[in-house]
Sequence to fold (291 residues):
Amino acid sequence: MACGDEKIIVYTEKNFSGACAEYRQDQPQLGDFDNKISSIKVFGSVWIGYTWPEYKGYGLLLEEGEYPDWQSFHDIHDDYLSSFKKMDMAPLCEPSNIQLFASENFSGQSTILQSSVSDLPCYGFNTTSSIKVKSGAWVLFQKPNFAGRQYILTTGSFPTKKSWGADVNAGYYVDGDDKISSLRPVKRPGNDPDDDIKVTLYEGVKFSGRKHVFTSKDDNTSDIQGRIKSAVVNGRKNWKLYSVAYPKTGATAVTELNYSNPRYPNPTSMPGADNTDGVQVLSLYPVKPDE
Fold:
């Protein structure tokens, strides 16, 4: 996608079909497309979609790329988008630096981060009450592995949970709305595909149910409680999934998901995984296709 062609195209049906509209400027209201968007393409830019008009409600980060169905861009409910705002590109060109504080007004335990963390509690940071974004743009997630409600922040100081939006009632999440469990820098448009290596695993078929996002190897996927029944691969690496934690050298993978065939809607679509009950995943590794 050309970095200079800054626009977003929305579609009323999955897989980029149905009626469509193209936007290049902020859209406080979507008219005939209000709450009717099922797939999206983003070119050369980053947008925030909102579940209510006038940029209110729950914010959803839409980075450069293609989103063939609503599960690929949020985990709330089909079609719930009512306004769009294009992000300023300047913060995306800065180094990423954020400081989290356990207590309000920048007090208590703190940690400074410059890259993604998929599970803050495992990292040793359980509570976030105030934040300083020193540079860059960040997306913070309610749940581990970059899932759940999102908070999108750029350079600034946020002394209370209210100041970074944790008290906004979006009408979808109730328990743990103000909890931050994972975070990452917002991706700059035009990055090489190798900079966006990830796999998204779903506990339901056709990309439904609880989802788990991984951007690097994980020797013990303790957060996965059910069997995996569908998956999506991003970037130019395959993923080997194992049914044991901490697999030894030479261990046989349950399946290998190939980036050249990135969407696996059910267990039988995964190579070697013919069990319709799904795949048990206790560890996984990104690998080059020839490894």
Notes: Residues 170-176 have pLDDT under 50 and may be disordered. The chain has three domains: 7-87, 91-185, 193-287.
